[in-house]
Amino acid sequence: MHNAKPSGDIVFPELTEDVVGRIAATADARVGKVMETLIRHLHAFVREASLSHEEWRNAIEFLTRTGKMCSESRQEFILLSDILGVSMLVDAVSNSAGTGLTDSTVLGPFYSGRQRELEDGDTILLREEDGPPLIVEGTVASRNGAPIRNALVEVWQTAPNQLYDVQDDAQPEGHLRASFRTDERGNFSFKSGLPVSYPIPDDGPAGQLLQMMGRHPFRPAHVHFMISASGHRTLVTHLFLCGDAYLESDAVFGVKPSLIVTPEERDGSQRIVYHFGLEPLD
Ligand code: BEZ
Ligand code: FE
Prior knowledge:
Elements: H1 13-21, H2 29-49, H3 53-69, H4 76-83, H5 86-94, E1 133-142, E2 152-156, E3 177-181, E4 187-193, E5 198-199, H6 205-212, E6 218-219, E7 222-228, E8 235-241, E9 260-261, E10 264-266, E11 269-278
Parallel strand pairs: 1-11, 8-9
Antiparallel strand pairs: 1-4, 2-3, 2-7, 5-6, 7-8, 10-11
This protein binds benzoic acid (BEZ) and fe (iii) ion.
């Protein structure tokens, strides 16, 4: 342990006030508020942790490596935000939950934009996969239960080898992802394969940090959904499979009990039925 000041004794308080004072001319009031909050919390963090020069250099070097790891297909800063619970916290402060609304969760780094639109009941597989077949049947409704027709339902998930198509050259592009439109009763359905739990990419700084903190990189098996409908807030969520070993320790803190489903077997397929409630924009 290096020198910590006695508690109650704030180190160099006038520095914080000087820095905050110098952003008083910030043109955008929201930017000014966010920057002031950031500066105050960062200074408080440095004081409370009593950071040494070496530790701060290590932190800067860590963030530099995080930036260098980013590419078209890899977003290491999102992973960092996810494993520290920041992504879920941003979601919690900016999304409302409540009766008639489906809980949201993290987007993650593997959404790869709008995909081909399929017909109701089509498969999202572009090639055969081993593993149990899955059927998903959903309804999309407004908070008051009124069905939403023509909602755009975008879905994506991993293959049985624990990889998304964008991580795996062996998978055809667009494998295990697609979009659908709800019918006049708000219904949609598709065929797929049962998702599996998988490790988030852990060969970079986020993975090293997980290891340093004694944490595993796994996420419990899930299917991703992004549901957009006019007059409603876009819902970004997942459905998780009950019984998964990682439900209690998701590496990115994304599990909410209302999103855990128990598939039922029907004609050799696992079947999930779920009602999605969207928040109307007033
Ligand atoms: C995902 O579920 O695809 C994901 C979310 C956060 C980090 C990595 C992957
Ligand atoms: Fe995922």
